[in-house]
Amino acid sequence: MKNFEDFVKHIVSKWRAEKTALLTEHGLAGLANRTYGDKAEEYIKRKVEALTPSYTTFISPGSQTPADIMAVARRNSYWHIMLIQVKSSDSENSIYQLTEKDRKVLNQFAQFVKKETGVFEGFKTYVGKSIVVSTGYAAVRRIEKPSLKHFLVNTEAYNHYRQNTSQLDLEGMKEAVAKAHRLGKA
What we know:
Blueprint: H1 4-18, H2 31-49, E1 56-59, E2 69-74, E3 79-89, H3 100-117, E4 131-143, E5 149-163, H4 170-181
Parallel strand pairs: 3-4
Antiparallel strand pairs: 1-2, 2-3, 4-5
GO molecular function, one term: nucleic acid binding
InterPro entries: tRNA_endonuc-like_dom_sf
């Protein structure tokens, strides 16, 4: 999707101007936690980029939106914009699980992204095209010794929002989106 990087910058800027910073309550308590969170986001970015079809992936700078990861890929007959909130810890049992309120905010962000695909100047060629925006979660465990390693513990696909999709095989689309959110995990 041409201009996706500019679209991500537009989304971050407009969201910050119109909304408040959300989902930062858990996981950004200090520099060390922020650094660990950034490393977990980089790990998930690599997992998304390894998917087929190939996703163009960006990390939301400084967690300034409810989605840490924003990615796009051309699927069979539609564009898929995937939004992921990443949480990590050194203990599998202490990885923050998104609350209902957190998921609601992430889904509101997805609706905001969907709306902006129709008005963003750089996306004029996509007006009338099939676009699916989906939300999800990735839980990452880190092990620091002997060297820092990350492991994908859990993923969840939450919701998806569609536009111009009346001609799509909706069940096939739902399964493809859910599979993408599994990030290669069986």
